TrEMBL record:
InterPro entries: DUF1501, TAT_signal. This is DUF1501 domain-containing protein. It comes from Nocardioides marinquilinus. It holds the Pfam family DUF1501.
């Protein structure tokens, strides 16, 4: 392999888009709370947007969907490389992945070499990729695209995400059915009238001050205050009481982060917590988690250095450790990873890639017809503004997941949408 000189740079690149710099956790939390009733439980948040959503005791989940959002617009052409198209190499003379290093090649596509930890899933038929997926129309704004892809109901004025609609299809209405692992902020995909929970970690699901020194006094006071209250906030608080109680078996499970070789990264720590939730088997049917830092306008790099190498390695090692950690619960978990949009075909002058359109989706676990690539990619163009054309609406992929794995109504989860047959999922 030829050694590529590294460009001069003095520090790691900061996020390039002003949208990321302007966003604050406080702003997101305030926006979410203004649209519904939110109960804060220690470091956890339970959101119930309407008073009609009553709490129910948690039960066991037959299937679990884990949605991994690659925030910042991951470059699908680096993760799953269309190496048979010469335009790919013409457009990326410095950052293209050499064909000789690719994994799981099929004559058209190959995996980035840093995805090697995922090869056992690929060879066992539990990992697949669908290329050239995305929104119906280009949207190069990170947060407008996130909103659109997580709402998944174009033209509707109703504030409800597709996962909240999915939770509404699962019998019962416990907040445990929908869970966001990531700092207590409910993403757009989970927001809506059906109650859900968000927390930064498993041990954060508790009432602040309810500890061994309090002897239950704070919890008794909260029950006195809220048990008889009506309205959305009272509903949210009663959901919080039930959920904290139901979550105790999860908190009793071990954190196998070290034993299962999770990376010491935000994604590794988050997926180790998701594994605890799934192993606790208390009725969680949908979990969301994020991996950030995919907005690579600069320093995408090569196989020797750069942000793509680091992020791809973290992604692969975290997912591989997660599926190992699931143990006996592995056979019911399906993971879908995707991003708000892709990157341009051509590299820019900063060893990076600017906002694009079409992208790749990765699916792993139960029900996935893996070990192959899906989707149709049109021949690439190598001009400065060339995009990956979207040939498969991302909702077609998700429709197969929610109907085959969770038995949900496609029309209810994705209103007005007529999916095409992708064929990536098998029936239960």
């Amino acid at each position: 392999m030829t050694t590529t000189p590294l460009p001069a740079r003095t520090a790691e690149a900061a996020p390039c888009c002003d949208e990321f710099a302007r966003l604050s956790r406080r702003g997101l939390l305030t926006g979410g709370a203004a649209l519904g009733a939110t109960a804060v439980v220690g470091s956890a948040v339970i959101t119930a947007a309407t008073a009609s959503a009553a709490s129910a005791a948690a039960g066991k989940a037959d299937s679990v969907l884990v949605v991994l959002s690659l925030r910042g617009a991951a470059d699908g052409l680096s993760l799953v490389v269309p190496y048979s198209d010469p335009a790919y190499y013409r457009a990326r003379p410095r950052i293209a992945i050499p064909k000789s290093t690719l994994l799981a090649t099929d004559g058209t596509f190959g995996l980035h070499p840093e995805l090697r930890p995922l090869l056992p899933l690929w060879t066992s038929g539990e990992l697949a990729a669908v290329h050239a997926t995305g929104l119906p129309a280009p949207n190069r704004s990170h947060f407008a695209a996130m909103e659109a892809i997580e709402d998944a109901d174009p033209g509707s004025e109703r504030r409800q995400g597709w996962l909240n609609r999915l939770v509404g299809q699962i019998p019962g209405s416990s907040p445990l059915q929908g869970f966001n692992l990531g700092g207590g902020v409910v993403p757009t995909s989970l927001f809506g009238p059906n109650p859900v929970m968000a927390a930064g970690d498993v041990d954060g699901v508790r009432f602040a001050g309810d500890d061994e020194w309090d002897e239950g006094g704070r919890l008794r006071s909260l029950h006195t205050l809220w048990d008889g209250q009506r309205g959305a906030l009272g509903t949210a608080m009663r959901s919080a009481f039930d959920s904290v109680s139901d979550f105790e078996p999860v908190k009793a499970t071990a954190d196998n982060r070290t034993a299962r070789s999770y990376p010491n990264s935000e994604l590794g720590r988050a997926l180790s917590q998701v594994a605890r939730i799934v192993r606790g088997d208390v009725g969680v049917g949908v979990v969301t988690v994020d991996q950030g830092a995919w907005d690579m306008h600069t320093d995408v790099g090569t196989l020797e250095w750069g942000a793509m190498r680091r992020n791809a390695a973290d992604l692969a090692a975290s997912i591989a450790a997660f599926f190992t950690d699931l143990g006996s619960q592995r056979s019911k978990v399906t993971l879908v990873a995707f991003s708000e949009f892709g990157r341009r075909v051509a590299e820019n002058d900063s060893w990076g890639l600017d906002h694009g359109y079409g992208n790749v989706m990765l699916l792993a676990g139960a029900g996935v017809k893996g070990g192959r690539y899906y989707g149709t990619m049109r021949p690439l163009e190598d001009g400065l503004d060339s995009d990956v054309a979207v040939t498969t609406d991302y909702r077609s992929v998700l429709s197969e997941v929610v109907t085959t794995r969770l038995g949900a109504s496609r029309a209810s989860v994705f209103p007005g949408f007529q999916p095409e047959d992708v064929g990536v999922m098998s029936s239960l």
